Amino acid sequence: MIRFKKVAKLIVINLLVFILILLVLEGLTRLFSNTIRTQGTDDVLLQKSIYHTSLGLKKSYTGYAFDREVNTDVYHFRKNGTTFNDSLQTTLLLGDSVTMGVGVNDLETFSALIQEKTPNINIANPSVIGFDTYDYVNVYESLAQNDKLNIKKVIVFFCLNDIYVRENNDTAPMLSGKPFIGKIFDFLKTNSYFYIWLKGTFFDRSKVFFENDYSLYKDKNVEKVAKNLKKIAESCNANQIEFNVVLLPYEYQLRNHENDTIYHPQKALSEKLIQLGINVFDCKNYVKNNINNNVQEAFLFADGIHFSEKGHQIIADYTLHKIIKP
Q: What is the CATH classification number for the domain harbouring 138?
């Protein structure tokens, strides 16, 4: 019995020391790093069935996504520094968490940076984390019915994980949702700076995510997402609305690769959309040429998809140069 108590006491002491070490490391990481973002989004920021069966941002609300404040207006759009003016024409931006701008402040998103340079039009950004082409159709069809918005241009910012097809149950390579261990990793990624640092320093998650999504670029999947984009394009054409698709790169693609097959996703989708008569813009070379040989500076720390403040500026400049042309 005495021996058992000694062992139990030793275990408790070691556990407490281990927890203390973790708390110290967490504190030091928070103190000395201003580039790390935890990867959680407030559930209360999102509201179900705003756009048919698709959720949307809660209107006139403030929440957090990836450690940065997200403010919305009365139209469920993320705020961009100006008040929506219904006497002006509107350019509608459709996208997922990348276009939503998780991890950066309202005025640092590329939608806000575009708005700053185009005061003669409204830039509307209803994008939501987790959206795909199915949701883009729902959002467009819902907003196109609102005459107050006066939509004259639609731009889909296509992240390569938009290839996920719902009926196939395509998912990212994550442990989220798996019993017990998935919940632990969910907690860590949404609360621990040290965990994000550890994961980004010792594991190449950008490569893992890219290789997972690359494997989904089969003809049948490309056909399905192109079909959704075609629905929007046809409606835009019927209503004299300009429609464009911008293909966004992954961080892993912008590293120095000798084999161009790494760009197969952009090539496959571009070819299909061009066949359908859809304007498509591939910005990977523009991004690569504007990052001063430091690929990671365009993306959030340990994140191969979401742009940093620098990345958002690059995408804003590209869009202004190629599509909006103020």
A: 3.40.50.1110
Does the pTM surpass 0.85? The reply is: yes
> Rounded CA gap, 267 and 244, in Å?
16
pLDDT tens-digit profile of 306-317? 999 999 999 999
Residue 92 parent element (H or E)? strand 90-94
Residue 175's pLDDT is what?
A: 47
Cβ–Cβ < 8 Å for 106, 112: yes
Q: Indicate the Cα dihedral angle 196, 199, 202, 206, nearest 10°.
A: -110
Q: Tokens representing 224?
A: 């399905």
User: Where does residue 166 rank: exposed (0-12), middle (13-18), buried (19+ CB within 10 A)?
Assistant: exposed
**pLDDT exceeds cutoff 60 at 236:** yes
Residue 178 has pLDDT above 60, yes or no: no
Structural domain span for residue 83: 43-171+201-324
